[in-house]
Amino acid sequence: MTLSGRHVLLGVSGGIASYKTCMLARRFIEAGAAVDVVMTASAAQFVRPTTFEALIGRPVLTSLWERDRALAHISLSREPGLVVVAPATANLLARVAQGIADDLLTALLLARTGPVLVAPAMNDMMFAHPATGRNLELVENRGWSIIGPESGPLAEGSSDLPGRMSEPDAIFVAAERLLRQADSRLAGRRVLVTAGPTRELLDPIRVITNRSSGRMGFALARAAYARGADVTLIAGPTALAPPIGPDVMRVESTADLAEAVGNALPETDVLLMAAAPADYRPAAPESTKRRRSDGAIAVELHPSVDVLETTRSRRKGGSIAVGFAYETEHGIARARAKLERKGLDLVVLNLDEEGSGAEVETNRVTLVSADAAQELPLLPKSDAAERILDAVERLL
Ligand SMILES: Cc1cc2nc3c(=O)[nH]c(=O)nc-3n(C[C@H](O)[C@H](O)[C@H](O)COP(=O)(O)O)c2cc1C
User: Fold this and answer.
1) Is the N end or the C end of the chain the one with fewer CB atoms within 10 Å?
2) Which atom of ligand 1 is found nearest the CA of 17?
3) Which domains does the chain have, with CATH numbers?
4) The pTM is what?
C-alpha cells in the first residue's frame, strides 16, 4: 500500500486507449490511493462512467454543471497530490496548451498548480503533426511530466511511429515516483542495487551457481525508483522481468559483477548489495564439454573475488553501503562481523526458515547495524524492500 493517504485524480479524454485507464485506476486503488475520475464527454463514449465508479468506489465527474458541486473544477485542481491525464487526446492537448477551459477536465487543468502527468495516445499521424508536437512542448515547458507515447500496435494497425499510449504499469510507476519523491531522502540520489546469482562456467555448458532468484534486489530497485532515486540495477542471470524505471545491466560471473560495481561506485550514494555472487569458481574451466562416459570427476574450486572487499576503496565518501547475508547459523554475530570487516552501514540478515530466503516471494529479515538488530516479520519482498529503504533513509 505504497500510496495510502495519497489522492490521485485521473483525467480521461476520448481516445480508444481509455479502456486501459480502467487498469490504471485499479492499480492506484490497490496501492491504497484515493482516486477521483474526471472524464470528457468523448471519453464517456468509449468507457461508461459506471465502470470507473465500480473500480474507484466514488462518483465519476463529467460536467462543469453538476448542481451539488458547483466549484468542483477548483477543488479538484487543488486537492489531489497528482493529476494523471490518460489517455490525453490530440484535442485535449490542443485545448490545454491554449488555456481553453470549456469542460470540467480542461478547467481543472487550467486552475492546477501542482504536478500533472500526461500520457498522450493517438493515431501515429496525429502525433507526428507539428501542431501536436508544439502543443506537447508547450505543456512540457510549463512543468508537466509526459510519458510516452510508444510505437507499436495501434487500434488501426501496427506502426513504427509513436502514438500508442504507454502501458498502465509504466504510467503507474511514473505516477508513483512523482507522488513519493517529494518526501523521500532518496530522491535525486544515485542508488546502485545488485541482484540475483552469478554463475561460473565449469565447461561451455555447465555452471556453478546458487538458488538466488533476484526478487529481493529487484524489489529494492523498484522501491528506490518509486522514491525518486536514480537507480542502476546490476543483475545476474535470472528469469524475472526487470523493474520499469531503473537502468539495468546484466552480468554473468562474480568477476563481471565486481567490475560493474567498481565502475559505478564513484558515483553511488547508496549501495545495496542484494546479489548472491557465486563464492567459488572452478580453478580450470574445461574448454570442451565433459562427457559422462569419462567417469567420475573432481573439480577444484577456488574462492571467487570478494565484491565488497575489492570495491571498497572506490566507495564515494559519505555514501551508505548495505550488505546482505544468508546464514544458516550464528546469524546476528556473523552479520555484525561482516558489517565491521567490510565497512558496511547495515547488514540485512536473511533467516534460513520456511517461507524466507531464496526462490520465495516472502522474506523475514533482521536489520543489523553496529548497535542494533531490528527483526522484521515475514513480509512480501516488496514490503521488506520498503522497510529496508526506510532504514537507509534514516542513515542518510
Ligand atoms: C473510434 C475513435 C477512436 C479515437 N481515438 C482517438 C485517439 O486514440 N486519440 C485521439 O487523440 N483522438 C481519438 N479520437 C478522436 C477524439 O475522440 C476526438 O478528437 C474528440 O474530440 C476528443 O475529445 P476530448 O479531447 O474532449 O476527449 C477517436 C475517435 C474515434 C471515433
Assistant:
1) N
2) 8
3) 7-179 (3.40.50.1950), 184-395 (3.40.50.10300)
4) 0.93
**Between the CA of residue 193 and those of 95, 164, 235, what are the distances in Å?**
43, 31, 8
Q: Residue of the nearest CA to atom 29 in ligand 1?
A: 15
Which amino acid is present at 138? L
267-273-275 Cα angle (round to 5): 125
Top mutation candidate among 16, 45, 159 for ligand 1, by most atoms within 8 Å of CB: 16
What is the distance between the alpha carbons of residues 3 and 33, in angstroms, rounded to a whole number?
5
pLDDT tens string for the chain (396 positions)? 899 999 999 999 999 999 999 999 999 999 999 999 999 999 999 999 999 999 999 999 999 888 677 778 888 988 999 999 999 999 999 999 999 999 999 999 999 999 999 999 999 999 999 999 999 999 999 999 999 999 988 777 777 899 999 999 999 999 999 999 999 999 999 999 999 999 999 999 999 999 899 999 999 999 999 999 999 999 999 999 999 999 999 999 999 999 999 999 999 999 999 999 999 999 999 999 888 888 898 999 999 999 998 888 899 989 999 999 987 777 889 999 999 999 999 999 987 677 766 677 888 899 999 989 999 999 999 999 999 999 999 999
Q: Which residue has the cell 537507509?
A: 392
Residue ID of nearest Cα to ligand 1 atom 11:
89
Residue to substitute in 21, 85, 89 for testing ligand 1 pocket (most ligand atoms within 8 angstroms of CB): 89
Phi/psi at 309 (5° precision): -65, -50
